[in-house]
Amino acid sequence: MSEKSTIEWTDATWNPVTGCTQVSPGCDHCYALTFAERFRGVPGHPYEQGFDLKLWPDRLDLPLKWRKPKRIFVNSMSDIFHKSVPEEYIFKVFDTMVKADWHIFQVLTKRSARLAKLGNSLPWAKHIWAGVSVETQQYTWRIEHLRQVPAHIRFISAEPLLGPLSDLNLTGIHWLIAGGESGYGYRSCDPKWVRDLRDQCQQARIAFFFKQWGGRTPKVGGRVLDDCTWDDFPINNMDRN
Length: 241
Description:
By secondary structure, the chain is an alpha/beta fold. The protein has helices at residues 31-37, 62-65, 87-99, 112-119, 141-147, 191-204; strands at residues 2-4, 12-14, 17-18, 54-55, 71-74, 104-109, 128-133, 154-158, 175-178, 207-212, 220-223. The chain has one domain (2-232).
């Protein structure tokens, strides 16, 4: 199942895997878990199994059918590097991405150790981006794993941003997304944390995208680039040859 996305930094989602398990504080109020569990036990529904992990081989070729180029968030409802996803299935997902080279694929994970372990054996074509989630200073080690991956574009998702991320080493990173937590029980995002990340990105000359402040009715942020223009980031003019 795939659909047009309301996530501001992508165009569509593609979920050849659904379901996941929580691994860090950023997962505490997981929107995907909340959504999926609403339908647990509903016969015939794609989330009849709730948020239990499930492979969907019949969805593997979906991006090949979308002829209009899109930025595609891979596994918005799971994590492709979850320990229960077989390596051979991960390679099948990447095989589709390599073939569908008119799209841009955004692969985001919290399982950065497995990303790094498999990274050199996966076909990181220029249109396949690698990213890790970092919600607090405690998890900045995921960035070190990301740096080991030979992807053309590496990005960080600091969402939900649950604390300051100070003095990040942004060497080899091309893009950073920041945003507060939304939904019931949300944890507040301090504007100082966001401004500091923006300033770090400006200093490192990498693209910065502010998504939202969060809350029960989050106010959309959008692009906050200041003197780092969006053209500095090869999102539309990337050489794919």
